[in-house]
């Protein structure tokens, strides 16, 4: 009897064992199928999570940029009709006046001219100067001389040379017209909704306009380009054509460059209708500030006034989240 019970028990156990043997392969197939559905990166993530040290996974405290805080109440009175003053690190506006009003940009247009040049040409590309008919500030290019794109950029950003800007525009594979189209396309890409160009040098035209806010955005974007940020801070330079037959002395038309420590550009502008314009970037006490003045009666003096006002009425403080 015991042996029969034992045998029966053995048979029962054997039957359960068979059921288990059938169950496990089926479970493995399902698990394999589910794993195959997971993207490979998730598998690696699961493995990494199983190996990571919980203490090492703690994130460092967030790094917060110093934030400008106004500490003074001195009024800022200027003749400039359009003004934007912005902290470059945080994009906080420190002062504005008619920021969304349209103005003639004059030669501050050449900021966009430089951007399109850098996007569509190489610095080493050679431009053959044609018979350029223009007015205003020039570097006195000679028809037929060959200049590198880089040297022409010095012409437009240091000396605000109209002939250099037109030489670059005319060199475009689609001609001057296509170059101007590219300027407007770039304005749309940067969401400069109140900016439009009809020429690469800044001549007055009813359809050639910008706003202080748009110009500030364009300027901040352009300063991220190392070529532009380097060139605009040069007080004076002499450039030559590729054959070293013609030499051009280029003096920075921004009188504050080389005069006020920390001023590193950016662009001047003037026409009779636009008045005096100036975009300035300055580094002082480790803080970068951008100043846009449009239609000013004394752009250099008023920019100095703004600089002193900013650093006398603002301090930069670090704000960290409380625990």
Summary of the model, kept short:
The chain is an alpha+beta fold and 323 residues long.
Give an account of the 3D structure.
The chain has 323 residues and is of the alpha+beta class. It has one domain (67-317): DD-peptidase/beta-lactamase superfamily (Beta-lactamase, 3-Layer(aba) Sandwich). 38% of the residues lie in helices and 20% in strands. The strands form four sheets. A five-stranded antiparallel beta sheet has the order 3-2-10-9-8, with helices on both faces. The chain has a two-stranded antiparallel ribbon with strand order 1-11. A two-stranded antiparallel ribbon has the order 4-5. A hairpin with a 6-residue loop joins β6 (236-240) and β7. The longest helix has 36 residues, at 2-37. The relative contact order is 0.16. The model is unreliable at 1-23 and 37-57 (pLDDT under 50). The active site is at residues 107, 110, 160. Belongs to the peptidase S11 family. Residues 75-295 form the Peptidase S11 D-alanyl-D-alanine carboxypeptidase A N-terminal domain.
What value does the average pLDDT take?
A: 86
**Rg from alpha-carbon coordinates:** 32 Å
CATH topology: Beta-lactamase
Report the top-level CATH class: Alpha Beta
List keywords for this structure.
323 residues, alpha+beta, five-stranded antiparallel β-sheet, 38% helix
Q: How is this fold's topology laid out?
A:
Elements (H helix, E strand, L loop, with lengths): L1 H36 L2 H12 L15 E4 L11 E6 L5 E5 L12 H11 L5 E3 L17 E3 H9 L4 H9 L4 H15 L22 H11 L3 H6 L4 E5 L6 E5 L11 E9 L3 E10 L2 E10 L2 H15 E4 L6
């Amino acid at each position: 009897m015991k042996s029969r019970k034992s045998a029966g028990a053995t048979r029962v156990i054997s039957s359960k064992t068979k059921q288990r043997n059938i169950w496990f392969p089926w479970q493995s197939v399902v698990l394999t199928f589910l794993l195959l559905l997971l993207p490979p990166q998730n598998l690696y993530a699961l493995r990494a999570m199983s190996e990571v040290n919980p203490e090492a996974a703690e994130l460092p405290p967030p790094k917060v940029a110093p934030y400008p805080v106004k500490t003074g109440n001195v009024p800022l009175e200027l003749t400039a009709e359009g003004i934007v003053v912005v902290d470059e690190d945080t994009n906080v506006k420190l002062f504005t006046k008619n920021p969304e009003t349209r103005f003639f940009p004059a030669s501050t247009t050449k900021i966009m001219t430089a951007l399109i040049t850098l996007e569509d040409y190489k610095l080493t590309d050679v431009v053959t100067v044609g018979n350029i008919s223009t007015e205003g500030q020039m570097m006195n290019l000679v028809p037929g001389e060959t200049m590198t794109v880089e040297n022409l950029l010095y012409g437009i950003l240091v000396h605000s040379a109209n002939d250099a800007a037109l030489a670059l525009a005319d060199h475009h594979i689609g001609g001057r017209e296509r170059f101007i189209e590219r300027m407007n396309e770039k304005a749309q890409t940067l969401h400069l909704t109140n900016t439009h160009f009809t020429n690469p040098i800044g001549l007055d035209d009813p359809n050639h306009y910008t706003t202080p806010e748009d110009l500030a955005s364009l300027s901040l974007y352009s300063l991220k380009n190392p070529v532009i940020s380097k060139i605009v801070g040069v007080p004076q330079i002499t450039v030559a054509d590729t054959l070293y037959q013609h030499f051009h002395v280029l003096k920075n038309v921004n009188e504050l460059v080389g005069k006020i420590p920390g001023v590193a550009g950016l662009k001047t502008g003037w026409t009779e209708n636009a008045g005096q314009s100036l975009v300035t970037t300055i580094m002082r006490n480790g803080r970068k500030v951008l100043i846009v003045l449009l239609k000013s009666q004394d752009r250099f003096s008023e920019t100095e006034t703004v600089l002193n006002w900013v650093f006398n009425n603002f301090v930069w403080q670090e704000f960290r989240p409380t625990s």
